[in-house]
Sequence to fold (342 residues):
Amino acid sequence: MELPKEIQELNDLLRPRWVSGLWNVDHAERPSDPKTRVKAHLWKWHDIYDSLVQAKEKISVASGSVERRVIRLVNPGIAESEMTSHTILLSFQLIQPGEVAPAHRHTMSAFRFILQGHGAYTNVDGQKMVMKDGDLILTPGGCWHEHAHEGDENMVWIDGLDVPFVQALNQISFDPYKGRLPVSENIDPVTFYGMTRPVGSSTPAAPPLLHYHWRDTYLSLQRLAQSSGNPFDGAALEFVNPATGGPTLPTMSCRVQLLRPNEKTKAHRHTSTSIYHAFRGSGTSVINGEKFHWQKGDTFIVPLWAWHEHANASTSEEAILFSMHDEPILKAFGLYREEGRE
Ligand SMILES: [Fe+2]
Ligand SMILES: [Fe+2]
Fold:
């Protein structure tokens, strides 16, 4: 649209002074509802796993040519960024027996959700955590971490990081560690965060709880599934930081939900973004009217403010979705809101 002559003249005067009039703001930049370029999308497990296998054939972690064998999920709406959403980068990592993904630390926080294999461990600041499928392991920003595999079959897990958010704040920093990261034998977070605590110890000084075992999670989930559950999420659990009672990480929260046979949730939407991984079973999620059919291993994203509902496709089997959310960021800045359809 052609601007009036006097506005053009004013803009020409202001431009070389590195200032600009508010009258230049496009009305499209002031929507009544929050908008995002992030698109609803589903990644099939076959594509992800085959990409990892192809990378396994061509890339060796042992030779040091790459530090991690990682496949990132690229959102088609923000393809140039190679990120999964504007706040979260979700990746899949494969490690072969005998490999060591060398230690480093960075300002970005990470979690790992283990999908298959056994015998590998993650060392976070000296805590050696043996990975089993369904386990959730945290690497808060600034912690040294290394992955090593002492087993005999390939291991695959999900890596979730707050890379795009930290990038937007211009806060990315990264340090490699020289040599192998030592394991400390004297750290036992359960001693601090279980039903007992050493006399005289203060919780904040204790080692953080970084490992959530699937055996405990699944037991709680099954018990919760005896109740009616949340109308929008079914029988859903949020992983908690026991020191604060808050979310797993300052920027990301992780959840796991069980959809009972035939269960269908009500639709809702929120200003946070959610990424789901089908850990067990199969189903359909409707995102802003579009149907996404998922099976075990598939991953899909629900953009912010998009209506969504989930349904278990089976009449006899349970379905379990692991999910990650940038909700803690929105809540920290007073930007979180949600609404549901009855
Ligand atoms: Fe890392
Ligand atoms: Fe939701």
Remarks:
- The first strand starts at residue 41 and ends at 43.
